[in-house]
Amino acid sequence: MNNSGGRSMKKSVILATALGLFAIPSAFPQGKGNASEGKDAFLKHCAACHGADGNGKEAVAKLLKVTIPPLGSKDVQSLSDDGIRKVITEGKGKMKPVRDLSKADLANLTAFIRTLQK
User: Fold this and answer.
1) Does pTM top 0.70 for this prediction?
2) CB atoms within 10 A of CB 99
3) Residue 76, domain extent
4) At 105, which CATH number?
5) Does residue 18 sit within a domain?
6) pLDDT mean by block of 10 residues, the chain; 118 residues
7) CA-CA distance, 67 to 48, in Å (whole number)?
8) How many domains is the chain partitioned into structurally?
9) Is 88 exposed, middle or buried (0-12, 13-18, 19+ CB in 10 A)?
10) Which residues pair with 92 in a beta bridge?
11) In angstroms, how far is the first alpha carbon of the chain from the final one?
12) Residue 12: inside a domain, yes or no?
């Protein structure tokens, strides 16, 4: 009996599996940050307005005449990681962009913000 059909089938299954893994980015998490290092960056760059707990400082909100959404809220947490990074780096409304952050800092900040989910 010729086994070349079996080898061909195995190759097809392996190829399909490999292609499937590349088509699903979440199969291999990339750019996932370190939440504890993100907390340090958060306290340094963000806590002045957002508070250490991410709920926003009422006095700052009044001073700027804005609402600072809790970072654990559904509205913030429903943003993609790229969406969160965009707000951090480009700002939003009266929030100024945070400058001089490395890709690792951004990944770490995003990871920390995800821990605030309610």
Assistant:
1) yes
2) 7
3) 35-115
4) 1.10.760.10
5) no
6) 57 48 39 91 97 97 96 97 97 94 96 95
7) 15
8) 1
9) buried
10) 95
11) 62
12) no
